From TrEMBL, chain A:
It comes from Nonomuraea angiospora. Belongs to the cytochrome P450 family. Keywords: Heme, Iron, Metal-binding, Monooxygenase, Oxidoreductase. This is Cytochrome P450. InterPro entries: Cyt_P450 (IPR001128), Cyt_P450_B (IPR002397), Cyt_P450_CS (IPR017972), Cyt_P450_sf (IPR036396).
UniProtKB/TrEMBL annotation, chain B:
It comes from the Bacteria. Its cofactor is [3Fe-4S] cluster. Keywords: 3Fe-4S, Electron transport, Iron, Iron-sulfur, Metal-binding, Transport. This is Ferredoxin. The keyword RNA-binding does not apply. Signal peptide: none annotated. InterPro entries: 3Fe4S_ferredoxin, Fe-S_cluster_ET.
Length: 406, 64
């Protein structure tokens, strides 16, 4: 009898920016293999790029927990069970299928068009410059996460949503609890509830006194009867949460990757070609794949992927970080190469659930890296790689701290 | 070159606009794709193909 390997996303301490060794081993066995989950159940693990897109673009796969989505930890299983009991989907439309998903998602997409996001670029640049002024005026070494990587996207998303930035410690602490896959179910539930209550309070305020922010836009929908107040609060939580944790980790790890590769760093610092900067950001997104560990789906019918039939009801995990290192799409995939064309990367996912905030994330990163590298030309790591506390425990990979000096 | 878009499928990711902003745009109300030019010059083929390839919703078909 062959034993089925365990699902394991822990990246190696020696190569913390590369996919988990266990994931790479599965990828070497083939684009579609099986893994055993913590509860003894099994799921299909999709590690190839073409197969990843085939699954996520397939009309017969679902993202709804109630249909049998694979569960990645006891805490998550408990969370899904309680959501099922309440008949709700805690994180809103990201765990719903169409047409419900599309209905809710379309209510917020207008805020994230390429044009709207472009209009936010000058303000984002100002935020970046101010944060760097403060960083340079303060003591060194400094923690790049606290001084720059986290406040930048937090400020941007708070402005966009219409959430007072003064409350950022509150929502960052709660987001951290939600994203940590070892959080106890009760803790995570509490954090989710606290954020939902907070957003609900804000919605109440905006019902009385609307502004021109995204939350006020949702409040209009509530007034028109197109959206319940609870749905609006959930969308607010999702956006607040997704809007800062992910980009913050990209800024942190991207800076780290560049500091470790002076030639690539020089390329980005010395270019003022927006095309090269945009493409460099895509490459960092591909190389780092902070959305690691896999996206979950469940087959609704028998479907064929890579010559293999996945039966209705079977769970599937598609792994962004191995798809992004698939040599048939990205030659020499382990090399950070800011000049390659990495547009087909799947860091934002693929299919109808692909990240809605991606234009915003791109713009923020296109501002953040050049600002840092140009204004602090002597920027350097103030610690050894082994000393950096990486987020091995999260659904989003990153570092808790990045000590830098200049 | 002939380009066909499917607005019902579009999930407003904006990837097509980033690939070819002279050919694709997004509606202000909901970010859904609109075609600015359904017959761009052959020199634009590579970027338009790219738009179709990166579209997460398979909403863009290119015939050339
Ligand atoms: S890339 Fe596809 S899904 Fe995204 S805006 Fe364009 S048509 Fe819509």
């Amino acid at each position: 009898m062959t034993t089925i390997p365990e699902y394991d996303i822990a990246r190696s301490a020696r190569c913390p920016l590369d996919p988990a060794p266990a994931m790479r081993a599965r990828q070497e066995e083939g684009p579609l293999t099986r893994v055993r989950l913590w509860d003894g159940g099994t799921a299909w693990l999709v590690t190839g790029h073409a197969e990843h897109r085939a699954v996520l673009g397939h009309p017969e796969v679902s993202v709804e927990p109630a249909r049998g989505l694979p569960r990645l930890s006891p805490a998550e299983a408990a969370g899904m069970d309680s959501m099922a009991k309440e008949g709700s989907s805690g994180l809103g439309f990201i765990m719903m299928d169409d047409p419900e998903h599309a209905r809710l998602r379309r209510m917020v997409t207008s805020a994230f068009t390429v044009k709207r996001v472009e209009a936010m670029r000058p303000a984002t640049q100002e935020i970046a410059d101010e944060l760097i002024d403060r960083l340079l005026a303060g003591p060194k070494p400094a923690d790049l996460v606290e001084a720059f990587a986290l406040p930048l996207p937090s400020l941007v998303i708070s402005n966009l949503l219409g959430v007072p930035y003064d409350d950022h410690e509150f929502f960052q602490a709660n987001s951290r609890t939600i994203i940590n896959r070892n959080s106890a179910p009760a803790e995570r539930g509490q954090a989710q509830r606290r954020l939902a209550e907070y957003l609900d309070g804000l919605i109440g305020e905006k019902l009385a006194k609307p502004g021109d922010d995204l939350l006020s836009g949702l409040v209009e929908r509530v007034k028109a009867g197109e959206l319940s107040r609870q749905e609006a609060a959930r969308m607010g939580v999702l956006m607040l949460f997704a809007g800062h944790e992910t980009t913050a980790n990209m800024i942190t790890l991207g800076t780290l990757a560049l500091l470790r590769d002076p030639a690539q760093l020089a390329l980005l610092r010395e270019s003022d070609d927006p095309k090269l900067i945009a493409s460099a950001v895509e490459e960092l997104l591909r190389y780092l794949t902070i959305t690691h560990g896999g996206l979950r789906r469940v087959a609704l019918a028998d479907i064929e992927i890579a010559g293999q039939v996945i039966r209705a009801g079977e769970g599937i995990i598609t792994v962004n970080e191995t798809a992004n290192r698939d040599p048939s799409v990205f030659p020499d995939p382990d090399r950070l190469d800011l000049r390659r064309n990495p547009r087909l990367h799947v860091t934002f996912g693929y299919g109808v659930h692909q990240c809605l905030g991606q234009p915003l994330a791109r713009m923020e990163l296109q501002v953040a890296y050049p600002a840092l590298l140009r204004r602090i030309p002597t920027l350097a790591l103030a610690t050894e790689l082994e000393q950096i506390p990486f987020k091995h425990d999260g659904f989003v990979y990153g570092a808790y701290e990045l000590p830098v000096t200049w | 070159m002939k380009i066909i878009i499917d607005q019902d499928k579009c999930v407003a990711s904006g990837q097509c606009v980033m690939a070819a902003d002279d050919v694709f745009d997004q509606r202000d109300e909901d970010g859904v794709v609109v075609l600015l030019n359904d017959d761009p010059s052959p020199g634009r083929l590579a970027d338009v193909r790219q738009a179709s390839l990166v579209c997460p919703a398979l909403a863009i078909t290119v015939e050339a």
